Amino acid sequence: MKYSDALQFARHLRKNQTNEEKILWEKIRKRKLNGYRFNRQFIIKHQHYNSIGFFIVDFYCHEAKLIIEIDGPIHNHQKKYDQWREEVLKSQEFEIIRFTNSDINKRLETVIANISFKLSNPTLSFE
């Protein structure tokens, strides 16, 4: 995938957010969470062997190098891809936390608390 294709797709994703992405975005946008700035549908370049590719992550905080992913039903069918993608991102020293749609819908305050904890304690895990 070329960067221009990734950019076009990221723009499409921003315009067509899931309900869960909209809910979380309202809680973390404009430095609402601990003063950290997040981007949504953010493009991250990676290199796999000799080819360059791009991942689009749901939310990204540059200051903390933190990626937040919200997993909907599609992720039940792409577990190997998600695992590989996470390994590539972690090899670039990104921190990744995942939540499900159900987490956002049923435990939003816990999700926010977990993100806040991770921002305040980057080397610790809440899992």
Task: Explain what you see.
This protein has 127 residues and is an alpha+beta fold. It has five helices and four strands. It has a single domain, classed as Endonuclease, Chain A. Strand 3, helix 3 and strand 4 form a beta-alpha-beta unit. The longest helix is centred in the first third of the chain and has 13 residues. The chain starts with a helix and ends in a 7-residue tail after the last helix.
The main pleated sheet reads as: 4 strands, mixed
Contiguous runs where pLDDT drops below 50 for at least 5 residues: none
What overall geometry do the principal axes of the alpha carbons give? Answer: globular
What is the CA-based Rg, rounded? 14 Å
State the helical fraction: 40-55%
Highest CATH level, the class: Alpha Beta
Give the integer mean of the pLDDT values. 92
Q: What is the CATH fold-level name?
A: Endonuclease, Chain A
Summarize the model shown.
By secondary structure, this protein is of the alpha+beta class. It has 5 helices and 4 strands; from the N terminus they run ααβββαβαα.
List keywords for this structure.
single chain; 127 residues; alpha+beta; Endonuclease, Chain A
Task: Draw up the topology in text.
Elements: H1 3-15, H2 19-28, E1 39-48, E2 51-61, E3 66-71, H3 79-91, E4 95-100, H4 101-106, H5 108-120
